[in-house]
Amino acid sequence: MNTSPLPTSHLDKSAGLLRPACVLPERVKLTQPAIDVMTDFRRMTAFIAHPDDTIQQAEARMIRRKVRLLFVLDADDHMAGLVTSTDIYGEKPMQIVHSRSIHRDEVRVADIMTPVDLLEAIDFDDLAHATVGHVLETLKSRGRQHALVFENADGKKMVRGLLSLSQLCKQLGITVQTSEVALTFTEIEQHLAHA
């Protein structure tokens, strides 16, 4: 077999790095497949923090990546929990500051994150047979901004994706404030009918 080297060229300082992208439909309806509103980590990188990161480091990462949630991974790359912008800007940091008599810049992600054993997740197999309406009703009934989606791999639950209420509302073309998560499904359907 006659082989020859592949041609090469030099990169310059304007070179970037291609990253996977999960392109979700701009608009969806309640009857469309639930997969249309899931950020799929097989197609997009999940952004992470570490338990020992300061909350300022986590906040800066969220701002830079334009996300409101980071997965917290321990030193062995096992999931330790989640930290959200609500955790960072909410009461948790001030409670830690007062209880430990420390400065806010000493508060760590581990202090305010939701530990992995308190997280609930939806089975990808169930989501694959669901609609956008099912996702909305699930987030609403749990009073959550986010829901994790897992799949089984080698006998372990692995996080496959993320469902976000803000992303879902954007795709539905509706506005739901955090305090309005308790809207009834009927109210949302009526809003969509008039939109």
Total tally of structural domains: 1
Q: What is the chain-wise order of helices and strands?
A: EEHEEHHHEEHHEEHH
CATH fold naming = CBS-domain
Measured between the Cα atoms of the first and last residue, the distance is 64 Å
Largest sheet: 4 strands, mixed
Please state the average pLDDT score. Answer: 87
Identify the overall geometry. globular
Biggest sheet strand line-up: 1-8-7-6
* Low-confidence segments: 178-183
Helical content, roughly? Answer: 25-40%
| Global structural class | alpha/beta
- Cα radius of gyration in angstroms: 20 Å
CATH architecture designation: Roll
The DSSP helix count reads 8
Q: How would you explain this protein's 3D organization?
A:
- It is a single chain.
- With about 200 residues, the protein is α/β, with parallel strands linked by helices.
- The chain has one domain (about 35-195): CBS-domain (Roll), CATH 3.10.580.
- About 30% of the residues lie in helices and about 20% in strands.
- It contains 8 helices and 8 strands.
- It has helices at about 55-65, 85-90, 90-100, 110, 125, 130-140, 165-170, 185-195, and strands at about 40, 50, 70-75, 80-85, 115, 120-125, 145-155, 155-165.
- Helix 1 (about 55-65) links the parallel strand 2 (about 50) and strand 3 (about 70-75).
- The radius of gyration is 20 Å and the shape is globular.
- The protein starts with about 35 loop residues before the first strand and ends with a helix.
- The model is unreliable at about 180-185 (pLDDT under 50).
